[in-house]
Amino acid sequence: MTTTPTILVVGATGTTGGRTVARLASAGHHVRAASRRARPVAGAEPVAFDWYDPATHAAALDGADRVYLVPPVGDSDPAATMVPFLRLARSMGVRRAVLLSSSAVPEGGPAVGTVHQALPGLIDQWAVLRPSWFMQNFTGDHAHGRSIRDDGVIRTATGNGRVGFVDAEDIAAVAARALTDERAPDTDLVLTGPETLSHDDIAAAVTEFTGRPVAHHRLSYEQMRDRLTAELPVEFAALLAGLDRGIAGGTEDRVTDTVQRVTGRPPHTFRSVLEREMRRDG
């Protein structure tokens, strides 16, 4: 086993993982960037990692004492894979784990909520990040972003519901602090942006910024579930459609001060993210 402490970032090429790697590397930390294809990531050591291939786990963990965990995408029971990995991590010397979850999934809830519940009993120092929906869903390679670019439409079952959308850069900033501060949070952290917005508000903001009309098409829960089932496992599609239905009922109509408390600065607004992301991509 190597002796140099390493921070392992699982999902290192993803929306929050890539940004977390960049922050840690720029601060001089030794980072191991884990992804299925072990893609090169600036300032980090690439390593092959697949949640469903246990043969990749020990090599990724070798020498690591802290890990950032992005659950396997589309898995309605990630605990089956993640809990054995966390047991292995502890046996190999990992002392701190930061888990990416969701504001919509409480401890003991479905999917990653079961990993959240197990984490404090598996790793001495820990944090669970529970961000609201990503602002980058509307600017990146998410279904909403593609639909905006291709059709000028955002399709949801959220109705008039409002969400405290959060910038992935703010999530990464909190993740980096949770991984490197002298004391681990040892709690869950609900992350939001500075305001709540409906999907009608999002459509209007994108329309104003791009000059191209974007509309919010309102679907029923059943329509949303069936649409998602074309791309995702049935159980996960039903879960996501159910989250939309929860938003319609007000479950995500909140803001928190977590980003400000942890990072010392306010979270970014949606308009500022539009300006940064879309001008960069354009």
CATH homologous superfamily identity of the largest domain? NAD(P)-binding Rossmann-like Domain
* Poorly predicted spans: none
What is the approximate shape? Answer: globular
- The secondary-structure element order is EHEEHEHEHEHEEHEEHEHHHH
Strand composition percent: 15-25%
Helix content: 25-40%
Identify the notable features of this structure and list them briefly.
282 residues; alpha/beta; Rossmann fold; UDP-galactose 4-epimerase, domain 1; 2 domains; 7-stranded parallel β-sheet; two-stranded parallel ribbon; 17% strand
Task: Briefly say what this structure is.
The protein has helices at about 15-25, 55-60, 80-90, 110-120, 145-150, 170-180, 200-210, 220-230, 235-250, 260-265, 270-280, and strands at about 5-10, 30-35, 45-50, 65-70, 95-100, 125-130, 155, 160-165, 190, 195-200, 215-220. Helix content is about 40%, strand content about 15%.
Lay out the secondary structure:
Layout: E1 6-10, H1 17-26, E2 31-35, E3 45-48, H2 57-61, E4 64-69, H3 79-91, E5 96-100, H4 112-118, E6 125-131, H5 143-151, E7 153-156, E8 162-163, H6 168-180, E9 188-191, E10 197-198, H7 199-210, E11 215-218, H8 221-229, H9 234-248, H10 258-263, H11 270-281
Parallel strand pairs: 1-2, 1-4, 2-3, 4-5, 5-6, 6-9, 7-11
Antiparallel strand pairs: 8-10
Helix pairs in contact: 1-6, 7-11, 8-9
Domain NAD(P)-binding: 11-107
Protein name: NAD-dependent epimerase/dehydratase
Organism: Streptomyces pratensis (strain ATCC 33331 / IAF-45CD)
